[in-house]
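Deviation from plan, reported transparently: iron/sulfur cluster complex.
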Amino acid sequence: MIRLTWRDLPIGGFVIEPGNARNNLTGTWRTERPVIDQDACIRCRICWMYCPEPAILELNKPYTTRSGKKYDVTYEVDYDHCKGCGICAHECPVKAIKMVPEVGG
Ligand code: SF4
Ligand code: SF4
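Because the crystal trials were delayed, the predicted structure below was used instead.
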């Protein structure tokens, strides 16, 4: 296993490779994870717009709620990259996103 130290960082900590966030699993930073209640979600897209990563996925995946409402789109969390900041839960107008503690390692 290769161990990197501070000496391996670029001077100034610059990010010298654009778009590299895709390659870094920033989800490992998380202490809490957002969980979307698909039945409560009204597909307003606000979480998708506010997520700074972006780690909210807008999927062409039909969903029918327990009350029979049909949607063509589903919002899900990309847990590989979600850092658990909680902005999505804070901004959701119907409180369909709950932050829950990460368990395990
Ligand atoms: S917790 Fe933060 S990083 Fe994760 S999906 Fe919500 S807004 Fe994005
Ligand atoms: S902000 Fe809330 S209601 Fe709107 S799409 Fe996201 S989870 Fe659904």
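The chain is about 10% helix and 20% strand. We consider this an acceptable substitute for the interim report.
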